Amino acid sequence: MITLTRTGAAENVALIALNRPNALNALCRQLMQELSETLLKVEHDSSYNVIVLTGNEKAFAAGADIKEMAKLEFADVFQNDFFNNWDTLSHITKPVIAAVNGFALGGGTELALMCDIVYAGENAVFGQPEINIGTIPGLGGTQRWPRFTNKSIAMEICLTGDRLTAQDAKEVGLVSKIFPTQQLVSEAVILADKIAKNSPLIVKTVKNSVNSAYETSLNQGLQIEKQLFQSTFATNDRKEGMTAFAEKRGPKWAGN
């Protein structure tokens, strides 16, 4: 239910696609297990620098598989830790770009929120409809929406189940750019190429620093940033980057 394609100018971009088209890429246990395994494979493969996560033109992911969940009881989801490993994406250290076309509802929106950058196709639709079926978001929807937008928007989205268009999502800060549906993935790969040209070591450091902004106070975040900045002076890539700049040539990253 997952495809992995090597792409990008230097073939160091992993294009991971959810591939359950007959169910609009609904997130079932098998799909999420395969996604987790694929993400970890890419994470531990140094030949990949950046990840692009997408679905198809109709759906990024239309939410969790309700047919699979409907028969479960509290004991099932609690004792078996339902959603276990569904958040692997949030632990990946390499940059992840979500290329969202079509429906990204419920778990689909939450999956996009776990990514570092969200690009949307013109036909993208976001939302948290869990309230309409008697439950709440369980993959971070109630936690990431207020961090990425604000409390009022998060409450409205989660309490009503209303959907947002791509333009709506961009206006509230969920999406950074919108592209024609058929151009979306190629534009995401272009962005991935730009990121992949930089030192993988420093890219991971930047991701770590930016993520700290959502998990700490401003003063704590500034201290983390300062420490990470100082740590780059212990790397060969920092030395190479500055030397190459002074010598007016392209840098050759060693990754250490």
How would you explain this protein's 3D organization?
It holds the Pfam family ECH_1. GO terms for molecular function: enoyl-CoA hydratase activity. The chain has helices spanning 29-43, 66-69, 74-79, 107-113, 141-148, 151-160, 166-171, 184-196, 200-212, 218-231, 236-246, and strands at residues 2-7, 13-18, 50-54, 59-61, 96-100, 103-105, 117-121, 125-127, 163-165, 177-179. With 256 residues, it is an alpha/beta fold. It folds into two domains: 2-197, Alpha-Beta Complex (2-enoyl-CoA Hydratase, Chain A, domain 1), CATH 3.90.226.10; 200-247, Lyase 2-enoyl-coa Hydratase, Chain  A, domain 2 (Orthogonal Bundle), CATH 1.10.12. It has a six-stranded mixed sheet with strand order 1-2-3-5-7-10, with helices on both faces. A four-stranded mixed sheet has the order 4-6-8-9.
Indicate the topology.
Elements: E1 2-7, E2 13-18, H1 29-43, E3 50-54, E4 59-61, H2 66-69, H3 74-79, E5 96-100, E6 103-105, H4 107-113, E7 117-121, E8 125-127, H5 141-148, H6 151-160, E9 163-165, H7 166-171, E10 177-179, H8 184-196, H9 200-212, H10 218-231, H11 236-246
Parallel strand pairs: 2-3, 3-5, 4-6, 5-7, 6-8, 7-10
Antiparallel strand pairs: 1-2, 8-9
Helix pairs in contact: 5-6, 9-10
Strand content: 15-25%
Q: Describe the global form.
A: globular
Structural class: alpha/beta
Overall pLDDT score? 93
Separation, N- and C-terminal Cα atoms: 35 Å
